[in-house]
Write a structure and sequence with these properties.
binds iron/sulfur cluster, about 450 residues, alpha/beta, 19 strands
Length: about 450
């Protein structure tokens, strides 16, 4: 059997396999975790320690048909202003619980489209955050940017607030593809965003592009990548388009017949990957590329890179506090997710309560399985004994978690001396191989792992 056929048979590009930005993944959180848990977790943050903070803005001016993110369209500013008041109320609740002297090492605004905030709102929000905890001297402050939703005033306000990193949504430069995915965005608009950011000293730029879009061919992909390279980004996320119309209703607008086959998707990924590597980018994990010397590339090389809700990161904080509707926090003891309903979230925090609805408390086994999955997705390898040692757990039990792996993925994984390796040819299967260590997903699919 050819490698292509083997990859396909083993489930390549199955849209139901998680991206593992957490373990367990959010569908396996339970309602046992609520506001009291979160209050205790916050109180346990060490005095004078550092945390990361994520602010979720679940609004967009336009709703792109391809997008699988939970976000709602709004033409007016009123719902956004009301939402922001709620985030400020949540910040006040956090301030009341947070131990003395805590500082923010990483601040990230995501969504949705954070750049639909007005300049005054951006200033208000960042001032409110800094009142709860100041940013450290060399803090990273990143914002997800939709180039269509940006102007000089918002750029000035973001720069004045201390933003020093941007993640720019591009998807594809081809006008016909943009049309079919409901995401018009000229090259000039994207370039203006890049130039505007760099002119203000924001020179750590990530860009998101997609492979597997309708009507994407190798020629078009190659042209898009060349245009992308002309903008000279520091990092590139090359995401596979996830077609999940059962979750994201607006994707029913996407013509399924025009989607590339799994084999074509793989060719598109390999083509884009080769162009980026030839241009000098380092390949990072399953879908990222970074210029040598970039912080993520250094963290990757030094073995300190992590995977969290924003994907790959050099952020090593033990605590990530997520604020806003549906935002997920990660504490050393487990996860806590806010009410995913924007109206429910707003009601709860305005009534003076934290909005935690669901979550998960880590067991020792969760820590072990999560560390293996993270290592496989960051480095395509996991030294089971070394991970067990780092976590103070039994190496034998860690090695036993790989039982059956080679049978499930013949020729696609190697285990030597307690170390699991995913060879180059099997890298497109990394998420599927990682799922073998996901006790919750395996139990749900009828496999025998105890949870
Ligand atoms: C939360 S969105 C925010 C970006 C910003 N609102 C914009 O439109 O530029 C972050 C990224 O998620 C990715 N994304 C959204 N839907 C996707 C899908 N169905 N498959 C793969 N990636 C997707 C896109 O690359 C997008 O840039
Ligand atoms: S891609 Fe960005 S702008 Fe478009 S719907 Fe998704 S979050 Fe909103």
């Amino acid at each position: 059997m050819s490698t292509h056929a083997q990859l396909k048979q083993l489930g390549l590009f199955d849209a139901r396999v998680p991206r593992y930005t957490s373990y367990p993944t959010a569908p396996h959180f339970s309602a046992d975790v609520g506001p009291d848990h979160t209050r205790d977790r916050i109180a346990e943050i060490p005095q004078g320690g550092t945390v990361s903070v994520y602010i979720h803005i679940p609004f967009c001016r336009r709703l792109c048909w391809f997008c699988a993110c939970r976000t709602q369209g709004t033409a007016s500013g009123a719902p956004v202003a009301a939402y922001l008041d709620s985030v400020k109320a949540e910040l006040a609740l956090l301030r009341a619980e947070l131990p003395q002297g805590v500082e923010i090492e990483h601040l990230h605004f995501g969504g949705g489209t954070p750049t639909l905030l007005s300049p005054a709102m951006i200033t208000e929000l960042t001032d409110a955050i800094k009142k709860v905890a100041p940013l450290t001297k060399d803090a990273q402050f990143s914002v997800e940017i939709d180039p269509n939703e940006l102007d000089d005033a918002r750029l000035d306000s973001l720069a004045a607030a201390g933003m020093n990193r941007a993640s720019i949504g591009i998807q594809d430069f081809d006008p016909e593809i943009q049309d079919v995915i409901g995401r018009p965005q000229s090259y000039d608009i994207t370039k203006a965003a890049v130039d505007g950011l760099r002119a203000r000293g924001i020179d750590s730029l990530n860009t998101d592009i997609l492979y597997g879009l309708p009507h994407q061919t190798e020629t078009r992909m190659s042209e898009s990548v060349q245009l992308l390279l002309s903008l000279n980004p520091d990092r590139i996320a090359l995401f596979g388009y996830a077609h999940v119309p059962w979750m994201a209703k607006r994707q029913t607008m996407i013509p399924t017949k025009a989607l590339p086959t799994p084999e074509e998707r793989l060719e598109l990924f390999n083509l884009a990957r080769n162009l980026l590597v030839w241009d000098g980018f380092a390949e990072i994990g399953i879908d990222h590329f970074a210029r040598p010397g970039d912080g993520l590339e250094l963290a990757h090389r030094e073995g300190t890179m992590r995977r969290n809700f924003q994907g790959y990161t050099e952020d090593r904080s033990d605590t990530l506090i997520g604020l806003g509707a549906s935002a997920i926090s990660r504490y050393p003891q487990g996860y806590a997710q806010n009410d995913p309903s924007t109206s429910g979230y707003q009601r709860t925090v305005r009534d003076g309560s934290l909005a935690t609805k669901r979550g998960h408390v880590f067991s020792d086994e969760d820590h072990m399985r999560g560390a293996i999955i993270e290592s496989l997705l960051c480095y395509f390898s996991a030294d089971l004994a070394a991970l067990a040692k780092r976590l103070g757990q039994s190496a034998e039990r860690a090695v036993a978690l790989a039982d059956g792996l080679c049978d499930a993925f013949p020729d696609m994984v190697e285990i030597t001396g307690g170390c699991v390796e995913i060879p180059d040819r099997a890298r497109p299967l990394a998420r599927i191989i990682a799922r073998h260590f996901d006790a919750y997903a395996m139990a749900a699919s009828g496999h025998s792992h105890a949870v």
